[in-house]
Amino acid sequence: MVYFGRLKGLDKARAKAWSLTYLERAGLADKAAMPLDRLSGGQQQKVQLGVTIMNDPELLILDEPTKGFDPVNRRLLMDIIEEQKLAGATVIMVTHHMEEVERLCDRVILLKDGTSRAYGTVADVQEQFGGTVYRLGFDGVLPSSALYDIVTESDGLAELSPRPGGDETAVLRELINAGVGVRAFTTARTSLEDIFIRIYGEAHGMAEA
Description:
Largest sheet: 4 strands, antiparallel
Number of strands: 8
Mean pLDDT: 89
CATH superfamily of the largest domain: P-loop containing nucleotide triphosphate hydrolases
CATH class of the largest domain: Alpha Beta
Strand content: 25-35%
Number of domains: 2
C-alpha cells in the first residue's frame, strides 16, 4: 500500500503510517509484509478499498464493495465508506444489497434491461412504490377490502398497502370487525428490498442496481 500511497502523492512516512493504521483496522496488520497475490480475495478487496481512499478522494466509484463479505466485515467496510461520505466525498456505488443503499445513498437508481425503473431519493422511490405499508400478524382469514391491497400473505403474516382512506385506525377496525385475530400491527415504509424484488422478480440476481 505504501507504493500506491507514493503514487497518490503521499510522502513515504505518511504513506507507511496511513497504510499500517488502515491494515490494523481492517484486521490485516499481520499481513503487512505479504505480497498482495498471496492474500485471499476478500483480503485483497479490503486492500483495494484502502488504496482507493488513502488520499481522501472527492469522488469514489465502487462496484459491489462488500460482495462476498460476512456481516462483520461488511459492516466494517460500510463504516469506512460512510466516513468518506461524511468527510465530503461523492460516492457512486453499484450494489445489490438494499440495506446498504438505505444506509448510505442520498439518491438511488434501479435499472432493468438498461432502463431506469426507479430514480430519486430513497423516500421518493419508496413513495413511488406504495410509501407506507402495514405489517400484520394475524389468525383467521384475511379479507379483501376497499381500504387496502394485500401485498404479501403467508403463515399468518401479511403486508398491506393502504388505499385512499385506509388509515391505520380504519384498517384495524375493519380487520377486527371481520373477525380477524390481530396479533401484531405496525406501520412501516416500503423497504427497498421489497421494491427491488417487485422490479426484478425472480431474475433479480442478474439485475443491476
